[in-house]
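(Fold this chain)
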Amino acid sequence: MMIIGIAGGSGSGKTTVVKAITEQLKEKVTVIPQDAYYKDLSHFTAQQKRDHNFDHPDSIDFDLLCSQLEDLKQGRSIQQPIYSYITCGRLKDETVTVEPAEVIIVEGILIFTCERLREQMDIKLFVDADDDDRLMRVMARDIVERGKNVEWVIERYTKTVKPMYLQFIEPSKRYADIIIPQGGHNKVAIDIISATIEKALAKI
């Protein structure tokens, strides 16, 4: 089994890279999204939820993520939490059963900030993209997929997304084995990475 970490700022194209690698490796891959492991804030007031910094490492339940990743490495299935961006909480009575696979991709903006998690990874990729491009993607995603308005998105980007990127995410780039410029549009890089993974799997 190989554990691959794919990090990068919000809107950098991580999901596109994950999808491209998954399409090439097909059934060999299971994807673990960092976003499923946000800490439950369903008990917060509406204002507390609005003020919460989702781009700080403390917002992620890394203990659970690392523990479940270890279970997968040991050949055990896990019950992955389901996080709702509407309620800012985990669904109480529903999880996703995830089975072990030849390749486990862990994807998220903050995954390289956790040393314990980094140590579990065989390959670490950082997806890089222009700040303006990332902002446009973040706005489109949060408005369409998460039901937010433009004012909310701009306020969050200014107060937390950009400062946290500069403080935590961009510096975590130094832990990457490979940096992918141009986000998910870098087909050459994705092809090389997929071929490298296939070659490594053949040796296991």
